[in-house]
Amino acid sequence: MSGWRSREIHSFRCAIAGIYAALRGERHMQFHFAAAIAVVAAGFWLQVGREDWLWLSAAIAVVWVAELFNTAIERVVDMASPGMHPLAKAAKDTAAGAVLVTSLFAVIVGVIVLGPPLWDTFRK
Ligand SMILES: Nc1ncnc2c1ncn2[C@@H]1O[C@H](COP(=O)(O)OP(=O)(O)OP(=O)(O)O)[C@@H](O)[C@H]1O
């Protein structure tokens, strides 16, 4: 195997390990994982269309990306500033704010995409 390919495989494994570590150590990440499974299951059950799948997958992806960056920032802050510091607080709160913004976006997408077919299903 060429050196380039083995370096790529190593990078890929590191990225998967990062996701796995965040999933194991962060309860918010576990919540987002469970929410993503529930949304995908609801999408299949309600047979949403192609464009709706794009919105749902975009919403899931942005929340995951924000939560992964939030976890990374928490780790770096804890390493750089084990004691209390206003800048450490600002960094963590800002990263948490990013997760909140993406979560609100995901809720809006979920209501718009899944709301009407869910309503039709339960109204019958
Ligand atoms: N070193 C620090 N200096 C000042 N404030 C901090 C520091 N560490 C954490 N905080 C404050 O405590 C809050 C909670 O921090 P914590 O590290 O427990 O993260 P969290 O948001 O609870 O995430 P999680 O529960 O997913 O680990 C931060 O948002 C911040 O306001």
Automatic annotation (TrEMBL):
The cofactors required by this protein are: Mg(2+)
Keywords from UniProt, A to Z, are:
ATP-binding, Cell membrane, Kinase, Lipid biosynthesis, Lipid metabolism, Magnesium, Membrane, Metal-binding, Nucleotide-binding, Phospholipid biosynthesis, Phospholipid metabolism, Transferase, Transmembrane, Transmembrane helix
- Which positions are tagged coiled coil? none
Can you tell me where the transmembrane regions are?
31-48, 54-73, 94-119
Q: Which residues form the active site?
A: 67 (proton acceptor)
The cofactor remark states:
Mn(2+), Zn(2+), Cd(2+) and Co(2+) support activity to lesser extents.
The positions annotated for binding ATP are 7, 26, 74, 92-93
Name the principal localization, coarsely classed: membrane
Stated membrane topology is:
Multi-pass membrane protein
What are the annotated GO cellular component locations?
plasma membrane
Query: Record's Pfam families?
Result: DAGK_prokar
Residues bound to a divalent metal cation: 26, 74
| Residues that hold substrate according to the record | 7, 45-48, 67
Q: Where in the cell is it found?
A: Cell membrane
The GO terms describing molecular function are: ATP binding; kinase activity; metal ion binding
**A GO term (biological process) for this protein?**
phospholipid biosynthetic process
Q: Which family does it belong to?
A: Belongs to the bacterial diacylglycerol kinase family.
Q: Which PANTHER family match?
A: DIACYLGLYCEROL KINASE
Protein name per UniProt: Diacylglycerol kinase family protein
What is the native source organism of this protein?
Answer: Cohnella endophytica
